[in-house]
Amino acid sequence: MKVTFPHMGNIYIPLKAFFEKLNIQVVVPPKCTKQTLELGVKYSPEFACLPLKITIGNFIEAIENGADTIVMAGGIGPCRFGYYCEVQREILQNLGYKFNMIVLEPPKGNLIDLITNLKHITNKKENGITDIYDAAKLGWEKAILLDDLDKKTATFRPTEINKGDTDKIYNKIVNLIDSATEIDDLKNIKLNMDNMFKYVPHDARRQTVKIGIIGEIYTVLEPFANLNIEKQLGCLGVEVNRNIYITDWVRLNLFPSFLKPKEHKKFLDLAKPYINHFVGGHGQETVAQVAWLSKQGYKGAIHLLPFTCMPEIVAKSVLPGISKKYDIPVMTLVIDEHSAETGLRTRLEAFVDMIKHKTEVENFDKVFARN
Ligand code: SF4
Fold first, then answer.
1. Which CATH number covers residue 328?
2. Does 227 lie in the same domain as 357?
3. Listed residues 100, 127, 154: the one ending a domain
4. What residues make up the domain containing 75?
5. CA-CA distance, 48 to 52, in Å (whole number)?
6. Ligand 1 contact, 304 CB (< 6 A)
7. Domain stop point among 111, 127, 143
8. Do 94 and 185 belong together in one domain?
9. Does residue 334 share a domain with residue 239?
């Protein structure tokens, strides 16, 4: 068995660690490129959302590289994600590929379901529950470290003196995390992470602004899909916070109920006056996030969604109201296969300029009011 899975940011690292720890061969799809997208666009229905198209490209490239088993997440709720696996299976079979597809449905807090699903994938007598636990623990610790790294990088990038220095350190640490085979290796990386960033010359006096990135999970987490928005914003002096990190998704969707974060329900209450029920994907979270970001002192939010994404279209319809109430500008960016980095840059520059100007005026008003 040679397992593969779709890309979504750095998620391939914990997944690879999990399977390899169980002695299962892994074929990580090549990183998403223009070619991946072109393959996906060529073979997917035109109206399908962008993540489906890119993941089809991932699977074709992985199968061409020798993968014979696809592991894909299932989904529930009023959005197309639940149908993804069926559509993907059909497209790939019609292309003549021979493969096995294993769909991991969200366990909804039932630990037994999750373990049964995992046992089904590992499908080996020698992998008992303890082995699965150890493999999952290694993957989980990697995911935690990768999220920490992403957050740290977002704070260093806007003040770096030489463009690209932060990303060099970032890539170095990502490779270290990827090659770690034991939890102790990860502990060492964690201990040294701050020191490694100290070598990045940065200008602590440079004025930065804090902006949140909110919206559909795949577009937020996959840099190829979001046209490297975090890097682009970092270069404009913006400290970025995402509405979701890999570990957040795992905690909410794969953890048993008693381990789920209690504060999430309270967080969703922020969306209640506008959307008071689940609308699929992360639509409700997107709305709550605007209020949360404003309360945390963020100066703006960028809402990302793939063209035709249903939950985020629902969220978008109420964003003007919540943006006005919490006095936080929100810019929505709809991404599809025709979007390009250069086009995005112009819009980001205009948005960031507007936010910096607004902040200056507010600061001036505060000083004026004091005197
Ligand atoms: S959340 Fe949006 S982009 Fe993702 S599967 Fe659902 S409709 Fe498509």
1. 3.40.50.11900
2. yes
3. 127
4. 2-127
5. 7
6. no
7. 127
8. no
9. yes
Contact 274, 322 (CB under 8 A): yes
Q: Whose CA is nearest to atom 7 of ligand 1?
A: 309
pLDDT in tens, 286-323: 999 999 999 999 999 999 999 999 999 999 999 999 99
Q: Name the nearest CA neighbour of 49 among 17, 88, 22, 18.
A: 88
User: For the segment 121-158, what is each residue's pLDDT rounded down to a tens digit?
Assistant: 766 567 778 888 899 999 999 999 999 999 999 999 99
Residue with tokens 């040294």: 192
φ/ψ region of 232 (left if φ > 0, alpha if ψ in -120 to 50, else beta) reads alpha
Q: How would residue 243 be classed by pLDDT, with cut points 50, 70 and 90?
A: confident
Identify whether residues 277 and 218 lie together within a single domain: yes
Mutate to test the pocket of ligand 1, among 55, 249, 309 (most ligand atoms within 8 A of CB): 309
Domain CATH code at residue 17: 3.40.50
Distance CA 286, CA 309 (A): 13
Task: Report the relative pairing of strands 209-215 and 100-104 from DSSP bridges.
Answer: unpaired
In whole numbers, what is the pLDDT of the chain averaged over residues? 91
Tell me, in angstroms, the distance from the centre of ligand 1 to residue 78's CA: 9
Check if the beta carbon of residue 254 is closer than 8 Å to that of residue 227.
no
- Residues 159, 188, single domain; the answer is yes
CA 195 to centroid of ligand 1, rounded, Å: 39
For 39, residues 6+ apart whose C-beta sits below 8 A from its C-beta are 56, 57, 60, 61
CA 47 to ligand 1 centroid distance, Å: 12
Structurally, how many domains does the chain consist of?
Answer: 3
Q: If you search the block for the tokens 């150890």, which residue do you land on?
A: 134
**Same domain, residue pair 314 and 360:** yes
